[in-house]
Amino acid sequence: MRQEPFDLRLRGTGTFGGRGHVRVVWLGVAEGGEPLRELAAKSESACRAAGLPPEERPFRAHLTLARATQRGGANLPPLPEPPELSGWRAEGFVLYESRLGKGPAVYAPIERFRLSR
After folding, report:
1. Pick from 12, 27, 34, 98: most CB atoms within 10 A?
2. What is the DSSP letter of 109?
3. What is the DSSP letter of 19?
């Protein structure tokens, strides 16, 4: 899979969930969103070619900070503003499998990929 290295920078917080019950708290992507979308589309295509079912949810570039351990989510207290974070050069990525079930989510690395021209 060809993808050039690109710059990334995180900024701003958000949540997944609704009706006062938050399931995930995340940091948003301020720079590098388009290369991330391209990489996600290429990864999705490769997964489909391997016979895996397609992801039904639209891609939203983010970095997960916290995940509720309760099934329906949790009430979220007010969050402080995140610190200003420096950007970095993405030169590779790791494909993880997330195993959700009883207890906290477990993330297992499957394979590492280098980005190249």
Report:
1. 27
2. E
3. T
Q: Which two tokens stand for residue 45?
A: 């295509």
Separation of alpha carbons 104 and 70, rounded Å: 10
- Residue 71: closest CA among 100, 33, 38, 42: 100
Task: Work out whether the CA dihedral 85, 90, 94, 100 comes out positive or negative.
Answer: positive
For the stretch 14-30, what's the b/e string if a residue is b when 16 or more beta carbons lie within 10 angstroms of its beta carbon?
ebbeeeeebbebbbbbe
Half-sphere exposure of 68 (CA within 13 A, CB side): 18
Tell whether pTM > 0.70.
yes
Phi, psi of 35 (to 5 degrees): -60, -35
Could you give the domains of the chain?
Answer: 6-89 (3.90.1140.10)
Exposure of 8 in the CB half-sphere (CA atoms within 13 A)? 18
Token pair, residue 15, equals: 């949540």
Spatial CA neighbour of 117 closest among 35, 6, 2, 34: 2
